[in-house]
Design goal:
By secondary structure, the protein is α/β, with parallel strands linked by helices. It has a single domain, classed as Alpha-Beta Complex (Spore Coat Polysaccharide Biosynthesis Protein SpsA, Chain A), CATH 3.90.550. Helices cover about 40% and strands about 20% of the residues. It has a seven-stranded mixed β-sheet with strand order 3-2-1-4-7-5-8, with helices on both faces. It is globular, with a radius of gyration of 17 Å. Bound molecules: guanosine-5'-diphosphate and magnesium ion (MG). Guanosine-5'-diphosphate binds next to strand 1 and helix 3.
């Protein structure tokens, strides 16, 4: 059992995963007595796994682990696999490979969990959020529309479901993730929906954020799928799939 698990889903991240590992590991070493960083290589076609293995060897790092998925499952699939089957932290967090959310922000999320919340999510859309480098205009727009849709269709009440940094207690993990059905970018909305359905206490916390230029989100395909997935979640819920 470790205090804290950080999961980094990684799909073709060979150019930035080493830098991110170095950055988060240094911070976690200074903050925790026991932690683990689990990188999930989501069927990458580049050298992501090699870079991570080299990092583990060079740093003689027992805290960093690598899970290799043979085929690409999508961010949600990678997170589900790791958070359920390859982590043992009392608190478990998933965190984007580009480190757009500065790692120190974890501290605020953990304070919320320590004060009794089951889930704490970083948010770019609250008045006190500090956006140092914004996303391109069309992505900000997409994000806002998507979150308004989620509210209109009564899926979640949150202002920003898509920020890549979310923390869960072990208990919340056990309730939510076995019920997760969606494996791509809509999975954030789905897990928050399941969490609310089960009465878990969730808090949205303003974060600092500095966007990294490159994104794996497809301009047209992903928003359309995410929109359709709103109805899929509704349907699954109606059919009792989340019970
Ligand atoms: N797109 C995509 N990202 C994945 C996949 N599996 C894992 N990821 C990870 O999901 C995270 C978020 O991706 P990113 O491109 O930064 O999204 P954005 O910040 O919302 O533009 C990164 O850590 C990716 O490596 C996958 O199948 N597709
Ligand atoms: Mg990103």
């Amino acid at each position: 059992m470790v205090e804290f698990s950080l999961i980094i889903p990684a799909y073709n991240e060979e150019h930035q995963i080493e830098q991110t590992l170095k950055y988060v590991r240094e911070y976690l070493l200074s903050e925790f007595l026991s932690f683990e960083i689990v990188v999930v290589d989501d069927g990458s076609t580049d050298h992501t796994s090699d870079v991570v293995e080299k990092f583990i060897e060079e740093h003689k790092s027992k805290e960093v682990k690598l899970i290799k998925l043979p085929t690409n499952r999508g961010k949600g699939g990678a997170v589900k696999e790791a958070i359920l089957n390859h982590t043992e932290g009392k608190v478990r967090c998933y965190y984007d490979a580009d480190a757009s959310t500065p790692i120190e922000e974890i501290k605020k999320l953990l304070q919320a969990i320590n004060s009794g919340y089951d889930i704490a999510i970083a948010s770019r859309a609250l008045p006190e959020s500090v956006i140092e480098v914004p996303q391109p205009y069309h992505r900000q727009f997409m994000g806002k529309i998507y979150n308004i849709m989620l509210r209109i269709f009564r899926l979640t009440k949150f202002k920003d479901t898509q920020c890549g940094c979310k923390c869960f207690t072990e208990n919340a993990v056990k309730i939510i993730f076995p019920r997760q059905k969606l494996m791509r970018f809509s999975f954030d909305a789905e897990i928050l929906y399941i969490a609310e359905k089960y009465g878990l206490k969730i808090i949205e916390i303003p974060t600092r954020w500095r966007n990294r230029q490159e994104s794996r989100v497809h301009l047209l395909r992903d928003p359309i799928k995410m929109f359709l997935d709103i109805f899929r979640i509704k349907l699954y819920s109606f059919l009792g799939y989340y019970n």
